[in-house]
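User: Here's a structure from my thesis project, written as structure tokens. My advisor, Dr. K., wants to see whether a designed sequence matches the one we expressed. Can you design one independently, without my sequence as a hint?
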């Protein structure tokens, strides 16, 4: 995609969500886009693609739940028990599908970031992690540990997403509520990925050893 088309699609996405969202939720969307854009710069991701996904993430959030379910089923999107019970869980997958059908967004990573922003998914790419985390830490978010999560988001998107998922899981557990299976799978995958990273660091020779070996 050249820069011109990139800008065009971002302008179109902005108009698309402005039309479909209340002022309050559009405000949240714009803050998530700014936060995600800034995380993209910090972590060396393509800012335009991250902003596009962030702009679109809640595009279907104000479609009535019954209609979300109907759309998802009509488009053959995966609908499990949790989604049947709480169709608003479908607003990510429905938004991704709307973006593809109505805006012509074809970038698979952008669509995945939109699709997975609510419950997460194992194997989420950096773009999806940036949007997932930005949604949790945008400036108007206010909960006890948001400060720590904001710091973590700038340090490491994998750590930040894992921490957000652990928190969601513990919060649900305290209230006797189940956590979505995709969130548990995402957390398991992130923890494994982070463990592998630590193992790799351990097996890599340190500066001193390298110095000795070469001279
Ligand atoms: Fe959402
Ligand atoms: Fe959101």
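Assistant: Designed independently from the structure alone:
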């Amino acid at each position: 995609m050249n820069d011109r088309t990139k800008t065009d699609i971002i302008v179109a996405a902005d108009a698309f969500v402005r039309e479909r969202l209340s002022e309050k939720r559009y405000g949240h969307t714009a803050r998530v886009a700014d936060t995600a854009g800034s995380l993209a710069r910090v972590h060396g991701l393509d800012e335009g693609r991250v902003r596009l996904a962030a702009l679109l993430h809640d595009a279907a959030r104000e479609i009535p739940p019954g209609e979300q379910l109907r759309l998802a089923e009509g488009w053959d999107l995966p609908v499990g028990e949790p989604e049947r019970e709480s169709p608003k869980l479908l607003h990510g997958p429905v938004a991704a599908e709307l973006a593809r059908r109505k805006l012509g967004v074809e970038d698979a990573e952008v669509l995945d970031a939109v699709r997975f922003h609510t419950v997460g998914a194992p194997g989420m790419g950096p773009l999806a992690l940036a949007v997932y985390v930005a949604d949790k830490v945008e400036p108007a978010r206010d909960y006890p540990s948001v400060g720590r999560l904001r710091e973590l988001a700038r340090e490491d998107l994998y750590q930040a997403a894992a921490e957000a998922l652990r928190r969601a899981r513990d919060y649900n557990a305290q209230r006797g509520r189940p956590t979505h299976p995709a969130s548990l799978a995402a957390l398991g995958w992130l923890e494994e990925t982070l463990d592998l990273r630590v193992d790799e660091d351990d097996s890599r020779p340190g500066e001193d050893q390298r110095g000795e070996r070469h001279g």
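When you compare it with your expressed construct, this may help: The radius of gyration is 19 Å.
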